[in-house]
Amino acid sequence: MTKIRKQTASMLTRDGIRLDADIYYPDTETDLPVLLMRQPYGRAIASTVVYAHPSWYAAQGYIVVIQDVRGRGTSGGEFRLFVHEVADGIDTVNWVSQLPGSNGQVGMYGFSYQGMTQLYAASAHLPGLKTICPAMMAYDLYADWAYENGAFCLHTNLGWAVQLAAETARLKNDAIAYQILYAASRNLPFYDLSPRFTESLNKYAPNSFYAEWRNHPEPGDYWQKLSPNLDGVDLPMLHIGGWFDPYLRGNLRLYKQMVSQSHFPQHLIIGPWAHLPWGRKVGARDYGANALSFVDTLQVRWFDQFLKGIDTGLLNKPPVYLFEMGSNQWRYFDTWLQRNQKSYCLASTGLATVRDDSGTLIPQLESFDELPLLSAVTDVFVHDPWRPVPALGGHGAIPAGSFDRCAIDSRTDVLTYTSAPFTEDLCLMGDVAVEVFCYADKPTFDLCVVLSEVLPNGIVYNFTQGYATVSLGQEITPVRIELQPTCMKIAKGNALRLSLSAACFPAYPVNPGTGICPGEIPMMDAQIITVSVNCGGNLTSKVLLPIA
Fold first, then answer.
1. How far, rounded to the nearest angstrom, does the alpha carbon of residue 423 sit from its chain's CA centroid?
2. Which of 82, 239, 331, 503 is 20 to 30 A away from residue 69, measured at CA?
3. 248 and 379 belong to one structural domain
4. Integer Cα distance of 126 and 106 in angstroms
5. What is the CA radius of gyration of the chain?
6. Is there a contact between 389 and 501 (Cβ–Cβ < 8 Å)?
7. C-beta atoms surrounding 376 within 10 Å
C-alpha cells in the first residue's frame, strides 16, 4: 500500500485572508497532478459522506488538497455564501498548482457546495485547471437550487440554512445559539417560527442568505450576479447527478450548455441516488448491487485521462450513463435523450378525488377509440391549508427517494389518474412534463405532480415529480410543469399513475392563495383553495412521456 503523508498548510488570498487546507502526499519523488476540493463543512469531513477518503485518492497517484473556504473550518475571513468563491478559487488553484511536488496540472471534484466551488473557479478560465467533476449542484441558483418553477424549496433550504448557521455559532463559541439551532435541525420549524430560533438563524445564517433568498422570489439581477457563468469555458467535465437529487436540474443545465460549447468530452452519469448517500437503497426501494456508487473509480480514470494523459478507454465508451430504475441496469447513450414525447390524456368520471378507478390515463393514439371516456369532465378538489398534502420522497423532501404513497393518493384532496396495466414493459428515458388545463378560485395556487408505478398488489411507488406556483391569466392555456427527468422501466402488468395536488408540505411552503409570498403572512390568513382540472374534450390535460 502506498504510504500517504498528510500535512496542513495555509495560503493568503489577494486581500490577505488565510485559507487552511489538508494536503495528502503519496510517497514518491515524482511530480504529480493535484486534486482540489474546496468546502465549507470542516475539511476533515472531505465529503466522505459520498466519496472515498482523500488518502485513497492520493494513493492513486495524486496530491490531494482539501481546503476550508473563507470563514469556515479554521480559515480566516467572513463566510458570505458564494460571494468570494471566484476570487478565492482563482487564488487557490494558482497556489496548489505551485505546491512542492505538483506538476502544475489541477483537477477539482466534489458535490453540492463543493460542486459549486468548481464552477466558480472554472468560470475564471484558469490555465492550470484542466478538468472538473461537478456533482449534484446548481447552475442557475434561482431555478436549480432556491426555487422550483416559482416555488421556494423550503425543506432543503431551511435545513441547509440551519446547518450553516449552527456551524457559524460553533465557530463563534455561542453555545446557546448552537444548541437552539442544533435542536431545530432535528425538528425543523416549518410553521410560525419561535423568536429565539429566528434570532439565532438571522444572527448566524451567513449573510442572512435564507431571508434574502425568500425576499427574491423572481429571477433577476440578484440571482444572475450570484450564479456562476461558464459562457466560453472549455474544459472536459464529468457531470454526476441522481434521479432523486434536488439539484439535477442544475446538472443537466450545465451539461447541455457544455456539450453545445465545449470541444472537450462531456460525460454524464445519473444514478438512482438522492443527494446523499449514493447507494443501492433510496427511500423504500432497493435498486440492487448495480446501484452501488462507482464514482470514485470513475473519477480516478477521468483524472488519469485528462491530468496524466493515460488512455483509460473512457473516451471509447458512450458518454451518457443512465441507471434505469425497474430493470436496475446501467444504460449507455451517445447523447442526452431527445425523444419524441408520447401523450397520455387524462380522462375521468368526475370522481378522481374519491375513487382510484375514476381517473384514467389513456394513450393519445388510442383516444379516438375512447370517445365515451374522453367526454369533457371537470375534476374538482379542495386544498385546506390546515391539513396540506404531505411530502413523501421524490427529490424535494427529506428523506428523498421512492416510497409507497398509496395512503396519500387515497386523500380526497389528491386527484389520481391511472393507466390500464401494461401488456408489455414501458421504458421512459428523458424529460417528462404535464400540461394541465386548470383554474382556481384564488389568485394563485400550487400544483404538485407525481408519477408513480402501481403494482398489482396496490403498492404505489413514486419515481418522478414536479412542483410549480401558478398564477393564471385571462387566456385559456395549459399549465406546463417540467418534472424531474427520469430513466424508468415499468414492468409488464404494472400501471402508471399521475397524482395532482395543491401542496407538498414541507418540501415547499403552503401557498396562502392570496398572491402574497408564503412566509410574508401568518398561516392563519392562508386561504382554502378550490382547484378545477379539465379532462377530455377540447381542453384535455395530458402527461408527456419520453417513451423509449
1. 33
2. 239
3. no
4. 10
5. 24
6. yes
7. 12
